[in-house]
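Please think about what follows:
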Amino acid sequence: MREMRAPKKKRTAEKLRAWRASLMRSRNHQLGIVYAPDEKSAEAAAMAEFKIREDMRRRLVVRPNDE
């Protein structure tokens, strides 16, 4: 008989942080909140979720949502 392996662990909600995404314009334009483990992946998630073009990436700001 084959031995059963333990299931692979997936990233859980505890490891994900909330990040506030906004676009810099004459005033900051709040886009919303994305969940990611770090700032770089939060930026990628925000670009995908809010359909931000590559040329607007430099205007994208993601900050931890510590409320």
About this structure: Residues 39-49 form the longest helix (11 residues). The chain has a mean pLDDT of 87.
